[in-house]
Specification:
Strand content: under 5%
Radius of gyration: 18 Å
Number of strands: 0
Helix content: over 70%
Oligomer: single chain
Structural class: mainly alpha
Distance between the termini: 42 Å
Length: 181
Amino acid sequence: MLSKLEELKLVSQCALGDNRRAFGRLVEAYQPKLRRFLLNLTNGDEDLTDDLAQETFIKAYTGIRSFQGLSGFGTWLYRIAYNEFYSEKRRRHEEHIDYIGESMQQASTQSTSGTEAQIDVKTAMSQLNPVERTVITLFYIDDLPIKKIVSITNLPEGTVKSSIHRAKEKMRQVMNYQLGN
């Protein structure tokens, strides 16, 4: 990962000198975590994740001069990715549908070996609405503090905290159901 000084230097080179190599280094540094974030938001849809990641980096590159440095570059990038995800969701007119009963029936036939435990977590994550999935991913997987999650999602701090709590509870219920059957 880049130090804050390296990151600032690369962002400056991109914004002031249109340095594509500098932006390439930023992409290399942030792509794995950004893809993981988007992969969780898209419920494992790798094609959509790739498209959203590409759009995120394109928008970041073309809009880097608007980066004000009020937050870290990573926070700014995640905000772009989050907006891209919701723009795509609106374009597709998708609505969250609760498949919890069906997923629990499917999960009850699975054992809990290492790979299947990952499937269980994926099943539990799929039961979350997009906001809950976003905050859980940012908080537990990306290890971001609440304040950064607030910056990325533009949600009030209380909403972020309650969404994390609700998501944990939903996931606990799904996992308990899977272990019980």
